[in-house]
Amino acid sequence: MAAGVRNARPKRVHPVDEVLPIPKLATYGFQHVVAFYAGAVLVPILIASAIDLPHEDLIKLITADLFTCGIASIIQAVGVWKIGVRLPLLQGVTFTGVAPIIAIGLAHGGGAQSLLYVYGAVIVAGVFTFAIAPFFVKLLRFCPPVVTGTLITIIGLSLLPVGAGEAVTNPHTGESDPTNIRWLLYALGTIVVIVAIQRLFRGFIATIAVLLGLAIGCAVAYALGDMDFQRVGQANAVGFTEPFLFGLPKFDVAACATMIIILLITAVESTGSTMATGEIVGKRIKASDIAKVLRADGLSTVIGGIFNSFPYTAFSENVGLVRLTGVKSRWVVATAGVIMIILGFLPKVAAAVASIPNPVLGGAALTLFATVAAVGIQTLGKVDFTDHRNLIIVTTSLALALWVTIDPEIAKAMPPGIDLLFGNGITTGAIAAILLNIAFFHLGARGPRVAGGGAITLDEVNAMTAHQFAEVFGHTVQEVPWAIERAFEQRPFADTTALREAFQVAVLSGSPEQQLELIRAFPDLGAQDETVNPLAVDQVALADLIEDDHEIVKLASAYRERFGFPLVICVSDTARFEQLLRNGLSRMDHSPATEKAFALIEITKIANFRFSNLVADANPSTAAQFSRLNELP
């Protein structure tokens, strides 16, 4: 009977998959929509203003944006097949695409007809993103923080002129009027309100500071006669923006190439948002999850191109809201998606948004775009600028991007067909950063290689300089200088066994302080790099042992808290997850001194595996035995 009761015990539901009561779903979902709304509707408003779309078309763009944002959020949160990561990720139109979309529109004459080329490029880029989704994590090595930080900074700085232009636009005539102090005060007042709310409030109120700033700015403008709701009364109560509203899409090679670059940048952003959300909700993110995210981004972007909208990514504001509220259910975001779809059928709501005076909108846009640039600067804080290569990548990319942003006319000097590709600062900076990173870190001679196929002989190893030896064998001891130097000092090596023993001796003969430095150089067990792959790439991936490795991650965290250094276990020497977990748990009872000795033993095992993968004929006695076996009839 007892066994039957135990077997009948319901399976624990992860908070991400929990379906809350309908009143809570509606309340929390609406909260997500409020936090998301200002950023979402800014994109079509800025694009429409820049390419001179009529007010009626702007209303349709806003309703289309909300409708497709809802669909995109449901795809990502609910998921179908291998599309959608099934996390509380709310999708919105990315700011990354604003400047390139404006450039594409203006290059094709502006107005509604220019959007046909925009939507053609959006659809092609969406298909491209969907297609590369399974392979994208392998491309992330070409987008380290020095590249992504530079690109995000460039995006923010390149968008600032768009916000600045809106801030001095006469809301009655739509013409630039920078000498009018009235418009300047509207923009500055909106900024002051946003800053004041951020300073005085915490929690949810602080997350909707931009929305409140817009609302208060509009209220003041209405009171002073600079805003009217005449068009709201003229708009239909219910309506739907049909697919291909402006006509069938047109395809321009340069426009498509530009949008593909933007989607690659967006894919990096989506990866970061997914990793952050996984950490918040307690879900381990794997390479397959990133593929699901990008498939959803790609499909949503294609749908956006069909329904008169733009590229999609996860909204960071809503990622922060998940952390702030502690509500982890993905069904809350799905509910928010339903609310947005409903809003997409209400043109009067879109008309009200479209009535926001340009200076008020410009003030809010300036703060949002500056925030984007600040995120890029924060990312660049992780970069080692003592390495001159990183400095050159950042400075050169920024210089080229801002050159084109300040004087876009230089694109006319380019040959026809690629002038658009280099016609705005974001794509110029993106191309420069990616190519420079490849040139400095992925091309050219980087020291001799020792491979299992016998790319270098033992005599060549003995002839290496200290620098060459460190480049080839540094990974064996986690790039710790003293261990590499101590192994190098034992040259010449009589054979590969002596070479292997040099590293073993180096590890075990270091001073206590040096050995602790070596242990701390290793990542926590189960840690991942920015490509969501195990940091110890020579070890068996934990995903090969068990699908859900949260227990290992929790163990590693508890271990570090107890001993002050990472839990190091040679996973390649472990066949089963239970054995791995049992090994780690048993070590929690050790004294710090005993555990330090255990860690060093595991490090020598890891070094052995790395050595065997690196060196040709690393096990001569074993190889000789196998060669004799091959000679048997």
What does this molecule look like?
The protein has 633 residues and is mainly alpha-helical. The protein folds into two domains: 16-237 and 245-439, no CATH class; 458-631, UraD-like. The chain has 28 helices and two strands. 45% of the residues are buried.
Describe the protein's topology.
Elements lengths: L1 H7 L13 H29 L4 H24 L12 E3 L4 H10 L3 H22 L3 H4 L5 H23 L13 H20 L3 H4 L1 H15 L6 H5 L18 H29 L5 H20 L5 E3 L1 H10 L4 H14 L3 H8 L3 H23 L7 H19 L18 H17 L16 H5 L3 H8 L7 H8 L7 H13 L3 H9 L29 H14 L13 H11 L4 H23 L5 H12 L2
Antiparallel strand pairs: 1-2
SSE pattern, N- to C-terminal: HHHEHHHHHHHHHHEHHHHHHHHHHHHHHH
Largest sheet: 2 strands, antiparallel
Structural category is mainly alpha
How many domains, as an integer?
A: 2
| Percent range for β-strand residues | under 5%
What is the global morphology? Answer: globular
Question: Which structural traits does this protein have?
Answer:
UraD-like, globular, 633 residues, two-stranded antiparallel sheet, mainly alpha, disordered C terminus, 2 strands
Short structural description:
By secondary structure, the protein is mostly helical.
